[in-house]
Every structure is written in structure tokens, then in C-alpha cells.
Write a structure and sequence with these properties.
2 copies of one chain form a homodimer. The first copy, chain A, is of the alpha/beta class and 335 residues long. Chain A has helices spanning 12-19, 23-30, 38-51, 57-64, 81-93, 109-120, 136-143, 168-181, 198-213, 230-243, 255-267, 283-287, 299-315; strands at 69-74, 99-104, 126-130, 149-154, 162-166, 187-192, 220-224, 249-252, 275-277, 294-296, 324-327, 330-332. Chain A has 3 domains: 12-55, lambda repressor-like DNA-binding domains (434 Repressor (Amino-terminal Domain)); 69-166 and 299-328, Rossmann fold, CATH 3.40.50; 168-296, Response regulator (Rossmann fold). The first copy, chain A, is built from 13 helices and 12 strands. In chain A, α2 (23-30) crosses α3 (38-51) and α8 (168-181) packs across α9. In chain A, 53% of the residues are buried. Residues 1-6 and 316-320 of chain A have low confidence and may be disordered. The interface between A and B is large, with 71 and 72 residues. Chain A binds a DNA duplex (16 and 16 nucleotides) through residues 11-13, 21-25, 27-28, 31, 35-37, 40, 55-65. Chains A, B: This is LacI family DNA-binding transcriptional regulator.
Amino acid sequence: MGDSLGIRKPTLEEVAAAAGVSKMTVSRALRGAPDVSPETRERVLKATEQLGYVGNQLALSLSSQRTNLVAVVVPSMSNIVFPEVLAGISVGLEGSGMQAVFGLSDYDARKERDVIRDMLSWRPSAIIVTGLDQPEDTVKMLRSAAIPVIQIMDLDGTPIDFNVGLSHGKAGEEMARALIAAGRRRFGYVGSVLERDLRAAKRKAGFERVLLEHRLAFIGQRIGDTLSSVCLGKYLTHELLRAEPNLDCIYYSNDDMAVGGAFAGMEASRTDDILMAGFNGLELAAALPVRIATSKSPRRMIGEVAARLARGSMVTGVPSSGKITAFVPEIIGIE
Amino acid sequence: MGDSLGIRKPTLEEVAAAAGVSKMTVSRALRGAPDVSPETRERVLKATEQLGYVGNQLALSLSSQRTNLVAVVVPSMSNIVFPEVLAGISVGLEGSGMQAVFGLSDYDARKERDVIRDMLSWRPSAIIVTGLDQPEDTVKMLRSAAIPVIQIMDLDGTPIDFNVGLSHGKAGEEMARALIAAGRRRFGYVGSVLERDLRAAKRKAGFERVLLEHRLAFIGQRIGDTLSSVCLGKYLTHELLRAEPNLDCIYYSNDDMAVGGAFAGMEASRTDDILMAGFNGLELAAALPVRIATSKSPRRMIGEVAARLARGSMVTGVPSSGKITAFVPEIIGIE
DNA sequence: CTGAAAGCGCTAACAC
DNA sequence: GTGTTAGCGCTTTCAG
């Protein structure tokens, strides 16, 4: 359990004693303040080294009334998309001295509120949350935190402060338009628990709006009752293909599901007459032996931009511009 | 930027004033201490509500000399395996009131050390790190942190305190044995930058040990110079198949690469005479239209067990037993 | 360039 | 049941 279980870690004061200066001087030297003589700094650094001193952020943050923390709340880790957003945040924060603290909401509004409250109790200097559909009380809590709130992924709604993402409604619309333009007419839908994944629901709604404009509709659909996965997509697609053998296109809640659909299509030898369309532009989708259509969502970039906004917040209070950063996903894999 | 930008958040003291009691009483009431009269508690809760009070963990932790933080350091988020470990940790921590703080090492020992130092400055009550191969100075830092150090994923080495994982050397050996038992003889290898992914390197070494026992060796191999991905696996497999057309089995650094290999095999119509073998047992691998071999690593479970150890540490100092939790991956997809 | 005093918001340990 | 006192380890502010 370490060399020194139960032995308090050295404090500034002890380093100061060892270096023969006051703790203020040590504090300054360690933070690289300009007004410390080189020799003093030298002695302080040596003492720090010898004692294995590690600063105490709790004391630092409490005393200085600011933290280097960015709270991040995402719904899940089971879909590679959110880890990629986190990776983007991590990159965007690099070199800023800021730390990301993550929490999972599990696509559950109550849980999200509790997680957010927990995170706020660490007094982060910014908070990044997923989506724009937080319930009233959560929004109130976020507002009164008096820190920048950065809502990511989704653009369809009213942001609290900053908003970085794309319109999922439009993404669904555009995909439908592109598929119809490419001659597809007999559409099916495969998704998973839509009331949990609000953004997938918005894409579906957008898709359906355009279908309606063209006097079309989903001929058949299958909605799973677990979270999206390749396996679920494959299973539901097999089912749907059995029920509706003459579809020429299936829209999926996301790429994981669509990849499963592509596998089902391969197994059913339907790769030539039916096109699977997903959302995200996963690396995996591009490597597939069959083509699928998808919208490339800039999830790493969303993370990076969000992180940049969070960094800014540590310096100034409010960047005056760029409250909303909108991305337009590129559609690939059609034609 | 919130309703009250720049306005200090309410403190215990203010809640106390509003409720007409001392801050100690508020503190006790909020923490659910037994010795507070129901009416007082009621008034305190009301005041808390009205003021929108959110506790300050910085002050709490500094004052009480303990945090509810578990530091977690993983190499990457780009491979679904680590997010899944994090999800497992998240589940394992649920209901304990503990928070996970994540950091990324990017498969870089220097960066890992810096990240660990940063995390330690928050005085977490336990730290979970990936692997057993930290350099000397990092180990020293971890030891002197005087908190439980939980090393996960890997078992091949000497743990600092707790160790939860599997032997990657043995995993490689077992896979080689199983493949040879199934009649495979002409092996190839496809991997990516092994000096970064130490565990993949251990699996490969184990695999080669068994090959040698059987007077066999890799006939051909391809090592990519980027991180593992489906795309890279596919590309390298195409290359390898061109160079060595009569392989009957390819071992991959992991399932992502192996899935790419499977795609390449499908494209080259080599699905019947060659078997791809990976590692992890990704959900994706099971859904594939062709069979691949893999070892199922219990990554969620590793996260959960690690989290449980971390929880224990908050209560007692040292759980006396179970310092090492060893998992044996199940091999699937052969025969 | 360096130091001393005060205090960040909370809890531990004791009084009452 | 409730209040008081004394810190936790650091920074801020003001003196020298």
C-alpha cells in the first residue's frame, strides 16, 4: 500500500523548512513566479525533489477560488462515439493545465442531474454536457453554477451558454434527400430505444419529414429494446428483411446498427439491391467489404472545440463570439 | 453564463443563517447525521433548496482529509476496450459516492507519469492504472502516494499493491495451442506498433513461444506504424496475403485488427482456407458474417473489480486478501 | 525579492 | 440536539 501508509504527505511548509525559506517563497518558486532569486529557486526545487512533494490541488483550489477542472457528462461509454468525444476534449485541453472529470448519465435524466450536481460540487471552471434536452431543474442548476455551460452534439434546441454540434433533425433530412435522389424509394427503419437516444429520434423524425414531402413513408421498421449494437442491428435487420423482402433501403439509428445491418445483408445475399444507411461515419464503416451510406459526424472536433471554449473560460469570463458552433455532417457512401 | 456570473455560490454559513442555526448543524443535517431534530432538519433542507446550495467538495475534502475520488489512468480512448473498462469502473463505483477522475497516457510513459502526478495532487483515495510496466520513478511516486494502487489489464509482472487482469503472455500461448490443435500450421502475424502496446507484444511473444515448441514460426508478418484499427488490419492483411498466399492462419494484435483481416479475407475470397485470430472478444467480432477466433477478455469485469477494490480502500485501509485477481480469457471461434 | 497574516468552506473534536 | 474552536494546505494581500 505504498511506502508510507498513513504518513501524511509533505506540505509546502515542510518543503519550506527543508529549503530554509518561508512557504510563500516555495509557493512562488514552484509556480514559476518571476520574482524569486535563481539560487532560492534552486534550493526549493531540490527540497521538493528530496521530499517527493506533490502539491495539493484541494488546498490550492479552495484557497485561490478557482479550479483547473472541466466537468464532462456523457450518456454512455458503450458506443465508441462518446469516448472519441472525450479523446477530443482531452486533446483540446492539452497544455492548458486543465483536467477533465467525467461522469456518465446512462441516458437517464435523473441520473444526469445527480451526476451534474456531484460534478458542480467540485467547482469546475466549465461544464460540458451532452445535448440540449435537460429538464428544467437541471438547467436551473447549470445556470446558477455561474460557469460556462457547453452543450455538445446536438443543435436542435435552446442552448444555455455555448453550443457545439450539429442538427440531428437536418442530418436525418439530408440523408433522406440524398437517398431519394439516388433513386431509393422503399424504406425501412431499424433503431433502438428511441426515447433514450434523443438525437437518434431527431434524425428519424427529420428523415420521416422528407419522406412525407415525397409522399413516402417507412414501409417497415424494427425498434430494439436494448442499446444499439452491431449484434442488435444484425438481428433486427434479418427480422425486417423477412417481414419486408422488397425494401431497397434501410435507415438505422447509427452506424453500429447499420454495420450489423450490412452483415445481415451479406448473409442474406442482399448486398446488391439494398442500401444500408447509418449515422456517424465510424472508421469501421469505411473498412466494410460492402458499401454503406452514413453521415460523418465530427465528434473528435466537437470535443476539441468544446475543450477550447472551456479553456477560454479559465482566462476571460466570456468569449463574446462563437456561442454556437454548427457542423454539417458530410454524407458518404451513396453512389 | 448562468444567472449569477461572478456571484459567489452560497456557503454553509449562509444556509445556516437562513435556517437560523449554526453551520455545524447544517453540515450534520445535510450529511444525514442521526442527531439532528426532525424540525431542524426540515428547516435546513428548505433553506438549502431555496438558496440552491451545492456543497463544496474542495472544502469538504480538505477539511476531512479524505476524498471520494478514484483516479484512473488508461492509455487511450480510441479502442473500445478502455471505454468499456471505464464503464465497468463506473458501474462498480455506483452507489459508493465515489467519483472517477480519468486521465489518458497515450501509450506514453512520460505522459503517464505526468498525468499520474496531476491526479495525485487531487489526493484521490485510490488510483487505478493500466499495466505493470511503469518505469521506476512512476512506481516510486505511486508508492509514496500512500493509497491503494490498482494495476489492471495485465498480470505479467510485479504489482505494487493490487492487480486485476489476465496474463497476456499466457493468452498468446493458449491461442497458439488451440490453433495448432485445430490443425493450423502456416501462421502469419499482423499487428501495430508493438513497443507502444506492451500487452499486445506479450501476447505475440507467448504465441511465438508455443510456435517454437512445435518447431513452427511466423511465416510472414506486417507491423503497422499507427495505432490499431479495422482499417489498418484490413490493409496489412491484404499486403500479407499477397506476399504469403499460403498462410492458413493469421494472429492479430487485437480484434480490431482481426476484423479488418476478416474483411480483407472476404474481399480476397479467402474465408474458407484461412482463419483470423484476434484478442478481446469484441461484440463486433461475434456479429461478423465470417467466423474469427478470439480470446474473450473480461474488460468490464476488470473495471468492476478494480472499482470494488477502490471502494474498499475508502472504508478500511487494506483489504487483506485478493491482492491479485486473475482472469483466464475464454477462447472462442475455433472449430 | 521575501515574509506574515488572514482566510477559502468545510469538518473533527470537544463543549454545553 | 446544537454550538464553538481550531484547523485542513494553500494563496491572496499587504508589508517590508
